[in-house]
Amino acid sequence: MGTIHDSMTEQGLVRPLQGRVLGGVCAGLGQRFGLDPWPARLLFVLILLVLPGSQLLVYPILWILMPAERVAYVQAPPTGPAQATA
């Protein structure tokens, strides 16, 4: 499963931490294709209406396959001893 997540991450298909409503799938698809989350959600629903019942399969599968966005934590540099002021 790690190789699928790595492949999707390389392609820019990740579920972002910001802009999620349910699982972040539509927000991630919108981010990948340069759309805001709400138009991406609307487009996702309109496409899935063409094939009734497909949303019950497609969304959960994408939720499982798309990795969550990783946050890089930056550690603050160590501070020296506090200087006393007179």
Write a structural description.
The chain has helices spanning 2-10, 25-32, 37-50, 55-65. The chain has four helices and no strands. The protein is mainly α and 86 residues long. The protein has one domain. 12% of the residues are buried. The protein is elongated, with a radius of gyration of 20 Å. The model has no long low-confidence stretch (mean pLDDT 77).
Give a summary of the structure in a few sentences.
With 86 residues, the chain is mainly α. It has helices spanning 2-10, 25-32, 37-50, 55-65.
Task: Specify the structural class.
Answer: mainly alpha
Unreliable spans are: none
| Strand segment count | 0
Largest sheet: none
Alpha-carbon distance between the termini? 61 Å
Radius of gyration: 20 Å
Secondary structure blueprint with pairings:
Elements (H helix, E strand, L loop, with lengths): L1 H9 L14 H8 L4 H14 L4 H11 L21
Helix pairs in contact: 2-3
Q: Which tags fit this structure?
A:
86 residues; 4 helices; elongated
